[in-house]
Amino acid sequence: MSPAELIIIPAGAGSGKTYTIQKQLARWVIEGRVAPEKIVAVTFTESAAAELQDRIRAELVSQGRLEEALRLEQAYISTIHSFGLRLITGFAFDAGITPQPRKLNDDEQGILIRLALATTQEADEVMGNLSRHGYRYDFNTDTGPEEAFRDRILLLMEKLRSIGRFEKDETLVEHSFLRIGELYEALGDRDIQKQALRRAIEDLLRAFPEDLSSRYADVKSASDELRKNFRDMKRALAGSSLDEDWKLWQDLRSLRVSNKKTKLPPGYDDLAAAVMAAAGELPRHAGPLGDALDHVEALLNASQDALQIYSQRKRERGLVDYTDMLAISHRLLSSVPEIMEYLRSRVDCLIIDEFQDTNPLQFSLLWSLHTLGVPTLIVGDVKQAIMGFQHADHRLLLQLQKTFSSSIRPLEKNWRSTPGLMAWINTVSARLFGDGYTPLEPQAKYPSSLAPLEAIVFRERPERGNMSITARHTSMRVRDLLLDGSQEVYDRQTKGPRRLRGGDIAMLCPSHVKIERYAEELRSLGIRCRVEEDGWFDSRVVQIACHALDHVADPSDRHAGLYLAVTELGSHTLESALTTMVREEDLSDPVLASLEPLTVRIEEYTVDEVLDEVIAALDLFGKISVWPDAAQARANLLRLRGEAAEFMRANREALASGGYYGSGVKTFLSWVRAKVERDDKQPDPRVIDEDAVTITTWHRAKGREWPVVVVCGTDADTSPRLPDFRVVYTDFNDLNSILDRAFIEAYPDFHAPETRDAFMSGLADEARDNAIRLLYVALTRAREKLVLECPCYDDKSGTESFWTVLERQTGITVGPDRMTVAGSEFDCLVTMATKHYPEDLDLDGDEPAAPLPRIGRRAITPHPLPQDLTPEAVSPSSLHDPESRPCPGLRRVRYGDPLDIAVGADSLQRGTILHRCFEVGLAGARRLNTVFESLCPDLGEVERERVSRSIEAFRDGIETGLSPAGVSVEVPVLGLDEKGSVVSGIADMVVETDKGIWIVDHKSDQVEDLQTLFSFYLPQLRCYADIVGKARPGKPVIGVAINWISHGELMMLPMELK
Prior knowledge:
Helices cover 46% and strands 14% of the residues. It is of the alpha/beta class. α9 packs antiparallel against α15. The radius of gyration is 35 Å and the shape is globular.
């Protein structure tokens, strides 16, 4: 490629952008214009990066370029954050950071940000009166005012970071005030306005000093309104309400007056009108404006101050987060000549995919690489820019296209949708985007017998706006399609037609709330569905497992016991269980009894092992196998196992920084409950259910396709929400300094509807454009058939829905068998829906006769697994014997004083530390000090001395009792048990004597009945002994022993020689 060459490829939906990148890069490599190892390709997900690299490699291999395919491994094909991390680690000293920066995990990030928010004092005045600034408890989201205020600051912090504002910028507040001043109506004299309202209220109350509601008790609406009006006026005259309560002012603008049905006393209406007229000065009152300015200033200052504190604490700990990876890289590229020169020689081309999803900071980093002289290929689609909630800014791609119009090479073909459907999409899109749309020529030549376009028309608004009515009508139409044997789709695998199945259909909704309604209606009609939604932690199987963990960790946890006893695993009803607990009787149940053995031995297990034992004890995998959503339940349970494993692998320092101390079950449960606040998505069950309809959101549908797509929820409101903050630019004259030209505009909320409307109008264009782009994404997912909900009724609420946007932009109308768009008519199947919940008149109809899926089947009747199956591998802990058995010949030797020191956050950490002390301490005091400093630096000198003496006493006891010729510690043991399963473990200590070998295990249990516990661990020791004996046939294993560290006692059991 030529130096600084720029190619911009606008790629519409289904136009084959990844294929284009694959072919273009392979061609440049083959032509010698680009060295494969000098490619930098940036995507926005790890999976997309891996797919791109695989496809480029496959293209090179298919053309016989094996050497170039191998050299591709050295290319930078990654996410933008991985690219940034690679830069800052390679040039760490130039960046002034540690050469191995540790990425901040979610727990640490959360706690550091919250500490920063708690430290800043910039918002104290607003925090002291949150209700005055509109913060109240939200029952829909279960969010309190303090949390809502904190969330708004967090959102502002992210927005500031996206425009590169990491240091305090005094001009931000000034810029935000400018827009507020432009939109707020001219001000009056606040003292005059207040006194006028006060006098009007006093006049009315002087004439009517009593509450009039009792006179109109027979008219409820009049009675309620008069009572409220009276209370509001009394409150207005008390204290400082008229100086700060702007909602009260607004309420006083609409007092109850006489109407045809209800006549109020003579003179009341005139006095009420005077009050309303005085309160009508609210849009011109200086008070709401002053509060709004104070609120915005507090938010911006608190956000900037918290960002500085957060950044300082990260630097002190040598930590970086995702945004740091970009910010530091951008600084290096902009200011260090050596790095500029290195990258100029190291990179032959830069490829950026999904460019419309970049935020200003990401744009600046990538653009700075291009300005170094790196040829750049940009692929993106402004029409699919729907990630604004993640601070992506499509205006940057628009400006690039405007500035470098000669570099544009649009893709002009569509490989997804059939010609009939594509004709409609082209017509609609041309009206949605005007000159910004390039018509796509359909290349999907496969035959389709489906009608490409269908409408479900609602001429009247559903009763009481009931969402379930719309969902029911649409779900019934989906059922009818599945029942109709003539509905066939083209199968890409068999290259021919086959009957329509549920898996061929996707129902796309604009929000998660709507998803659940449609899923409920589908299930009620007997149609299986795959719902891509949140709710993993609250799913039934995860709650059962977590309550079981709670019970095992704390058998006195009555709530956990109650929960388990009344599930399908227990034997109680809620009434019987509560009755038992009210009587203060023990709640006995088989499910609790099955967990009892674990409660005794929990300290010997790690969290992931405890979870596995709980699952086995409850036979959870077996139980859920017959549930209707068995595949999803299994996936949810597997995710819980994965979370437990991740918790055990996690850096303990990082966990402690996040406020999670120790590694026990309770800590794990706290950790996972916090994690689901960020990620509560149910995992993909990975089971192909060909008869399950997919239900997902418009956002999650991006980049995907299905044979049949049903676009639901077009009646959803698209209006902007207040308050809001948006990024604006002074101009786009210099893209190299775009971050310096970026500022924040504030749009506060107000009680006066006129003021609110003025500020919402400032956001209306952006909201409409976002709705258009979302519509485009939803309408372009279908290959053969699009079913569209059409709410063709007048919405008197005044809100602007997706449908009204579509109507206004395209002039779309639906007739009996036609859909007209911009004067063009299209054949359309039309289903008329009513405003009522439909009666299912086809309850006895045939079920869809879809064939059994070839893969992913489950047995119709579950059967227990045979008991004599031999597992491939077993863990040593699974060999423990829960029953107490006598151990003839067992000898007990006390070698020292009990070691009952408190070390570590919990029993598991205590055991790990003491094991390590004995392992290392047997080799000498110097190495033991290293253990103290690294694992328990807070352990006092007295306790350290006690540990040292205990280790020395144990060594003397071994010398005296066994006369060892050699001692080995932490010996790996790998072999087969008596059933042929692989056993892999670590023997704490192997003592070799003249007569044979002893296997010694360290245990830190703090129980009294050591003989019973010895019997419990004995099978594991015997297994080790058998494996070591087979490995050392010339030296028999003559005994096993346990060192009870906490008791200063050694238990020794000679083995019978075979």
